[in-house]
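Listing S7. Sequence submitted for prediction.
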Amino acid sequence: MKKARHRQKRSGSALDETLKKVETERAKIEAIIAAIGNGIRILSPDFRILYENKVHRDLLGEHTGEFCYQAYQGRNSVCENCPVDVSFRDGGIHTTERTVPTEHGQRYIEITSSLLKDSEGKVIAGIEVVRDVTERKRLEAEREMLIDNLREALAKIKTLKGLIPVCAWCRKVRDDKGYWEDLEHYIREHTDADFTHGICPECLEKVSGEGYEDFDDEGSG
């Protein structure tokens, strides 16, 4: 009788030790998953949610035990281009982006899927790593808007290029429609430049015979 109790006690201690080791390993795994900083969910081959870490629950809510396509998209079948579905079929790693409604508003998420196998290599579940990329999407949209604004601004900048037909006598310019117009007017119309007037030393000598230093070259307009 005493031997039976002793064996039972030893058996209970061994079980307790085993359970303690299991809990320790589980705590280690949870700590590693938490350190990753992304949402993690594990799906059965029929797409039922078996596990969600805290990050995933905080982002998309608690849905353990539900079918993922019903929980997140309100569908009755697997979503088109579901990454974990593709992983189940070809064994690869796949990434896609989705928009999902949450209690925090519409969010953009990036989903990367892979497979979970047992020690014999048999597929037992699918794993999805979920990353909230809403802020990244906002910054990308702002960048695209900035690029569009810059393109529009550049398109409005007036430049002169190519050959410009100028009269050798009066210095008028022929425009694209064949009309002759004043050089200054032409340049104002086709660039953002404007004019200020002065007189060069050579012309000043021809006009007045006086020295350049006696003339304010900013004086005429």
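Caption to Listing S7: primary sequence and predicted structure tokens for the chain studied. The mean pLDDT is 80. Strands lie at 39-43, 49-52, 94-102, 105-117, 123-132, 173-174, 180-181.
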